[in-house]
Amino acid sequence: MKTIRRRKMEGKTDFTSRLASLKSEHKRLVCRKTNRYIIAQIIESHEAQDKILIGIDSKILLSKGWPKEETGRLKSLIAAYLTGFAIGKLALEKKIKRANFDIGMNRSINRSRLYAVLKGALDAGMDIPHDKKALPNESDFKRNEKLKNIMDKIKEKL
């Protein structure tokens, strides 16, 4: 009988995709969502040891002009896009142009918040392999006109 690894049993790690990621030797754009925020990190692996090169979350939008009354929406589609745009700009400043997208054990749902982070990083200028149909389109961002206007202002500050 085969022993199941603890992290796989707990639903925390997919070892097949992790091994493929380690073999590729590219940096990873890791995206996670919590109950309140979107977290984006650029991670590099050496000998199965991960090192975070850049890490931000959607809380930084508060310092860039996100309205205080909209604090509860820091994991919305627009906040996710801006978080991806911010990490893309930081990565390009540190001369990181290529990465692979990693959503971990989250479900892969097209046009979701996780893919909004990817779209933000792509719009910032990063080179990340992706499928275009997975990315949110302009109509997804226009649902909330107030936040769309805020997105345009914050994008200029980043």
Descriptive notes:
There is one protein chain. The protein has 158 residues and is α+β, with helices and mostly antiparallel strands. It has a single domain (14-157), classed as Nucleotidyltransferase, domain 5 (2-Layer Sandwich), CATH 3.30.420. 41% of the residues lie in helices and 17% in strands. It has seven helices and four strands, in the order ααβββααβααα. It has helices at 6-9, 15-24, 60-63, 77-93, 113-124, 138-141, 145-157, and strands spanning 28-33, 38-46, 49-57, 100-102. It has a four-stranded mixed beta sheet with strand order 3-2-1-4. The longest helix is centred in the middle third of the chain and has 17 residues, at 77-93. The radius of gyration is 16 Å and the shape is globular. The termini are far apart. The mean pLDDT is 86.
